[in-house]
Amino acid sequence: MHLHGTSAINNRGHLEIGGCDTTQLAADYGTPLYVFDEQLIRTRCREFRDAFLATGLQFQVAYASKAFCVKAMCRIVEEEGLSLDVVSDGELYTALQAGFPPQRIHFHGNNKTPQEIEMGLDANIGCFVVDNFMELHLLNELARERKMKASILLRITPGVEAHTHEFISTGQTDSKFGFDMENGSAFRAVQESLKLEQLRLLGVHSHIGSQIFEVDGFEIAADKVSRFAAQVRDELDYTFTVINLGGGFGIRYMEGDTPLPAARYIGAIADAVKNNFSARSYPLPEIWIEPGRSIVGEAGTTLYTVGSVKDIPGVRKYVAVDGGMTDNPRPALYGARYEAMLANRALDVEEEVVSIAGKCCESGDMLIWDLALPVVRTGDLLAVSSTGAYNYAMASHYNRIRKPAVIFVKDGAADVVVRRDTYEDVAGNDVIPERLRKQPEPIAKA
Ligand SMILES: *Cc1c(COP(=O)(O)O)cnc(C)c1O
Known about the structure:
Elements: E1 8-9, E2 15-17, E3 20-21, H1 22-29, E4 33-37, H2 38-53, E5 59-64, H3 71-79, E6 83-86, H4 89-97, E7 105-107, H5 114-123, E8 127-130, H6 133-145, E9 150-157, E10 160-163, E11 166-169, E12 179-180, H7 185-195, E13 199-205, E14 209-210, H8 216-236, E15 242-244, H9 262-279, E16 286-289, H10 293-296, E17 300-312, E18 316-321, H11 330-334, E19 340-342, E20 352-357, E21 366-373, E22 381-385, E23 405-410, E24 413-418, H12 423-427
Parallel strand pairs: 4-23, 5-6, 5-16, 6-7, 7-8, 8-9, 9-12, 9-13, 10-14, 13-15, 15-16, 18-20
Antiparallel strand pairs: 1-2, 2-3, 4-17, 10-11, 17-18, 17-22, 19-22, 20-21, 23-24
The chain binds pyridoxal-5'-phosphate.
Residues 64, 66-67, 108, 207, 210, 246-249, 290-294, 389 line the site of pyridoxal-5'-phosphate (PLP).
């Protein structure tokens, strides 16, 4: 397993994160346990900011909070000077409760409800990323009721889809998100926005994919967006001040994943924007980006205790842990792959190949297939790396399993940022209607 950030093997042969021995963390907080390397989160935030500062462009780096949205994380994002993307009322609520400055919040989503839009307006958030014509009119109406002007970006689909090591120019885009550029709906959305009095159009937004390991997808998107901006200026006499190029910067899950440093992505984006916009004599817009996974993914490690071990000779050895698809649904959902190690015997040599099973009643609840480990014993502590993004965020109560605690570790200290669920968190919203209540036993007469 690759050791990210402050992760190291200490002289007792234990995995250590943020100066904390993981065997001690497991003893103190129980397992499964999500452990976040706070320093690494902060480092990633700074890398994006510093990279932009070096370009001389105006910018905003907005953390896509859907990757991992809890109040303590919002605090770190604010302290590091980033903005924040939310995609639901629940994420917005979390950010506001954490005291995140509303003006630095951007609201995404392809089906914002009237209540969500009202919540955003009432909080006076910085920007709505408008996805469709219905939302455009709804937002205008709700802003009018409040005598407000809402700043917006229009989400457009530029016909570029980045996939890990290649990009696909999709032509006609088949996507549930945004206004299509090629069929003219993006242009009509601009025309429409300029007519709506309660809206202030800042510019456009495009997001081309996730786990992107190359810069060319962003370069093509910058070219297409600048061409669109020039068309809008020439035909409608309107100049965009913001271009948002989305997120999707890759991280390392497995050996062979080769993310670029933030500075490489940002350098390429800045060059592409400068070249394309200058070539069209267009005033340089502010550049916004939205990293999610690349801010938190590698900072997260999940600790599990090994329980049952089932050896099917000549076939496979199943090693079951005390969590699974409830705390990390990604392998079951889309075949995501992870690395892991024995955190309590980190120096032992690998001697066997096993498969890590979760504890849910689903054959598909497998965390890792074919992992080389020392001979595993019940009670060992398994650490799975790069679980910071889309793990806690996607956790469920399937099988009524309680969600694990989340802790931040830094400089030898650990802090709980989400408490482990109680049974009440699992069953507390249940209601037994009167007619189903258990009747008291009739009292036997003496
Ligand atoms: C999911 C998403 C992101 C973040 O993607 P990552 O792969 O986590 O960086 C950014 N912007 C939009 C619009 C998204 O939907």
